[in-house]
Amino acid sequence: MPIPGGPLHPRSAELEAQAYDWALRRGLVDAEGHRRLAASRVVTLATSYYLTARYREMAVLARWYVWLLTLDDWYDEAPPAGAGRGGAGAHRDAAGPGSAGRGPGSAGRGPGAAAFRAALAEDLWPATRARMSPAWRARFGRHLRECVAGYRWQAAVRTGRVPPPEPAEYIAWRRRSFGAYPIFDLIEFVERQEFGAPLRQDAAAAELVAAASDAMAWTNDLHSLERDLACGERGNLALVVAAATGGGRDEAAARVEEMIAERLRALLRARAALLPLGPQGRLLGDRVCAAVRGAWDWHRASARYRPGPRAPHAGGVVSRAAR
């Protein structure tokens, strides 16, 4: 891995515990789900790329990570009615700040669904939006709605409500559904500074976030491949590539490893291109790259991907992408 690792935030254990306990109190998980959350250590995805950030902002960020992960799992287990709609229309139906459409809170799937809407409206969004400018707020809301629309689309693929995607379609949806876009919008929240328009509109900044999202999402696909096969999931890049090429699963997984390595190289080029934009360009590049490294470490260590035999290429993606 070309990005060096580092220690977790010094209060990582506290940040983890408060986020997992919050999810239990809010009804996002039951007692068993709380145990699995704690075992997964998903909050270390956040604490891996902030070492000196203030606890208050980090606690909110940790809860965002938990909300996104548990909502993704909720769609996996109970896709709401209408999950088969893809494309731009699905964005209007997704849950998120400013959304009047149908999301988990109105999907009619019981109190677990309503809990996600309440946690968003009553806890996460009020704690986050106060210091956002209108433009920042709109950007974050759009990215969050697109992410949840991606969850709905993946559920539709899995249940056969939409046909299996071609690689280009899958890559476009997966880039948004992984959750990196709203999470990276929160770098400004944690750092207590809003990035200027020149940085946000720069092509290198856009490529930085896209490459990071791709690398993390595709790594996730390889680490979850065996689990996805066991539960009939069709939305996995290795399976999509195998279907498109007519090759075997191992051959497709090896190709995905190569694709991840390509995106890591693009990520580092984008970070270098941001340096002339000054301290904020450096900050964005450093935080995004550190998040990619944190995700790389998390996928290797998390109990979430160790319930059974390890995917054949789960280790290979690490070794090849590292070169």
Automatic annotation (TrEMBL):
Biased composition, class Gly residues, residue ranges: 98-111
InterPro entries: Isoprenoid_synthase_dom_sf, Terpene_cyclase-like_2
Keyword Protein biosynthesis included in the entry's annotation: no
The keyword Phosphoprotein is annotated on this UniProt entry: no
Pfam families per record: Terpene_syn_C_2 (PF19086)
Cofactor(s) the protein requires to work: Mg(2+)
Keywords tagged on the record: Lyase, Magnesium, Metal-binding
Region (Disordered): 82-112
Enzyme class: lyase
Similarity field: Belongs to the terpene synthase family.
Name of the protein this chain belongs to: Terpene synthase
Organism: Streptomyces hoynatensis
